[in-house]
Amino acid sequence: MHELNQTRIEALATAFCKARIAVIGDLMLDRYTFGSVSRISPEAPVPVLEIENEQARLGGAANVGHNILGLGASPLMLGVVGDDTSGLILKGIFTDLGFPLDGIVTDSTRPTTVKTRVIAGSQQMLRLDHEMKQEIARDTEDRLIEILEENIHSIDGIILEDYNKGVITRSIIHRATELGRKHGVPVLVDPKSQNFFEYQDATVFKPNRKEVEDALGVRLHTREETVAAGLKLMEMLHAENVLLTLGEKGMMLFERVKNDGISNEPFAIPTRAREVADVSGAGDTVIATLAVCMACGMNVRESAVIANRAAGLVIEEVGIVPIYSDQLVTALLEDIENRIPTNE
Q1: In what order do the strands lie in the sheet with 157-161?
Q2: CA 247, 253, 255 angle in degrees (round to 5)?
Q3: Catalytically active residues, by annotation
Q4: Which of 195, 202, 132 shows the shortest CA–CA distance to 168?
Q5: Beta carbons within 10 angstroms of residue 81's beta carbon
Q6: Is 128 helix (H, G, I), strand (E, B) or coil?
Q7: Cα within 13 Å of Cα(141), Cβ side
Q8: Could you give the CA distance from residue 141 to residue 148 in angstroms, rounded to a whole number?
């Protein structure tokens, strides 16, 4: 791995703005209701929230796009919204941030996915989900792939961002991966359980611990169990790289070496959060940062180290927030100055 020195990091920050990443997946609107609790309701034994602030933010695949934008790169969002107020709000946020709407398909047969979080102080009390998990129609699949094909020559990476809300179908997976392979565009996958083993031949496959445990029917308590699971996924999925995100235990990267063999010794990256406030959205930050770094010429190890650092920054804040390039570069430069190691 190249040494992450000051010159290389500063050059990376400049290169971010040249990257264009397509994100295919489940777009969501995240609503937040913030307030304080000082009494119990006389109607039922439940706390009464006195509302102080309400916000609407980008969630799901839309948050991945927000992270890409925060890094200074350009996202091409490919997803579906309903013909409803929430869909208009989501598109309005996109427009305000400068996202192109070319890849957003409106489907009047399904609602926009909305997650509403009720937060008292820094404690989440309740989450309300408004969604339809049924797979999108074939003509919607065709339209999304058509848009990807129209843009394939100007994009530097494809992210498949699956939240099991119906956009990432088997057809979308296979056709998008084939397009990426045909045109030499890296395909990075943030999976969920439903289509876990459909993601063949990805450039980077990035599941978390629970997703791996559920898919393989195992429990990852020890390093040996985790290594065995990662190697098994490399074989089953024919992935170039598998990046396991392990929460407080950091990440573990499995790589395919040049002679098509699989390295038995993974690259371990320790977690970097100083204080964990909210882990929501950390996976979105990881996949977005990984894709942008790789599009800018970083190798997969360097990209994983930087993505891990980015995740450590966003989980120090309450709610789903994106990473920003100046924030990330400052943290990376501070690490160099303090000689903090990037791997075990």
Answers
A1: 104-107, 74-82, 20-25, 157-161, 187-190, 204-205, 241-245, 251-255, 267-269
A2: 160
A3: 284
A4: 195
A5: 25
A6: strand
A7: 16
A8: 11
Which amino acid, one-letter code, is at 249?
K
**pLDDT tens, residue order, the chain (344 aa):** 446 777 777 777 777 778 999 999 999 999 999 999 999 999 999 999 999 999 999 999 999 999 999 999 999 999 999 999 999 999 999 999 999 999 999 999 999 999 999 999 988 999 999 999 999 999 999 999 999 999 999 999 999 999 999 999 999 999 999 999 999 999 999 999 889 999 999 999 999 999 999 999 999 999 999 999 999 999 999 999 999 999 888 899 999 887 667 777 899 998 765 666 556 668 899 999 999 999 998 899 999 999 999 988 887 775 667 888 889 988 888 888 776 655 55
Q: Is the pTM higher than 0.85?
A: yes
Take residue 340 and report the two structure tokens written for it: 């903090």
Q: Could you tell me if 42 and 127 are in contact, meaning their C-beta atoms sit under 8 angstroms apart?
A: no
CATH 3.40.1190.20 fits 6-29+57-112+132-337, yes or no: yes
Which residue type is seen at 210?
Answer: K
Length of the chain: 344
Main-chain dihedrals φ then ψ at residue 139, nearest 5 degrees? -70, -30
Structure tokens at 178: 């084939």
Residues 6+ apart with CB under 8 A from 316: 273, 274, 275, 276, 277
Looking at residue 103, its amino acid is: G
Contact 133, 165 (CB under 8 A): yes
Residue with structure tokens 């070496």? 257
**Four-residue CA torsion sign, 50, 53, 54, 57:** negative
Domain limits, the chain: 6-29+57-112+132-337
Q: Are 258 and 240 in contact (CB under 8 A)?
A: no
Q: Considering Cα of 314, then 55, then 292, then 252, what sign does the dihedral take?
A: positive
